[in-house]
C-alpha cells in the first residue's frame, strides 16, 4: 500500500501523471486531462477525500471504474473541473491563503454545469497499475520508457521553506506528515548532487516555480519507497 498523502495531493498528482501518460502513449495525439476532482470526490477506496488518500488506489480506480476528463478551477473544457481555487500554500503570495482544512465535495456522477460532456460517456480507463521497487535505476528507466510517476514521501518542516537546490532534510527537522507528488525527471546538480525533478501541487509560486529537486539514490525522506505508476488503456 502506498503512503497516505495529506489534503488533495494524492488525487492531483495521480491525475496529472495519468494525463501525462495518456499524452505520451498516444504519441501526443490525445491532450486529455484526467479529472483530479472525480478521483477526490468519487473514489471511495482512495482514502478520505480532502483528509488524505492513497496514490495506488487512485490508479486502481482509474483501471476499474474509469475517471472522467477535467481541467482547472472554473473551466468547462472537461467534464469535472478542479473544485477548489488556487491558494497560497505555505507562502505569502498574491492569492488567498490556503485553509487548514477543506470539506470533501460530494460525489456527483454528472459533469459540471456548462460542460457539453456526459459523465458516463466520458470515462477513461487505465489498463495496468504497478508499484516500482525501491531501486534508483528501475525508477529512472520507468521515467524514460513510460513517463512521470507518483511518489509518496515524508515531509519535514524544512521542506516548507524550500526555494532551490537539491533538498535534503535536516536531521533535526520536525516530521509533519506524508505528501504525494509527480516525478518528471532526474539529473545531477554541480556534478555531484544527483536529484529527482518533481512537481509539487501547492502552486507555481512555491519552491522553484512549483518544482523542487530532492536527493536521488538514498531514499531521502522515504521518497523512493512508494513509487506508483500505471498505463492507459
From TrEMBL:
A matching Pfam family: Peptidase_C1
The scientific name of the source species is: Callosobruchus maculatus
Q: Name one GO molecular function term.
A: cysteine-type peptidase activity
Q: Which PROSITE patterns does the record match to this protein? A: THIOL_PROTEASE_HIS
* Name of the protein in question: Peptidase C1A papain C-terminal domain-containing protein
- Family matches, as InterPro entries: Papain-like_cys_pep_sf, Pept_his_AS, Peptidase_C1A, Peptidase_C1A_C
* GO biological process: one example: proteolysis
Q: Where is the signal peptide?
A: none
Query: What family does this belong to?
Result: Belongs to the peptidase C1 family.
Q: Which residues form the Peptidase C1A papain C-terminal domain?
A: 2-231
Domain of life (superkingdom): Eukaryota
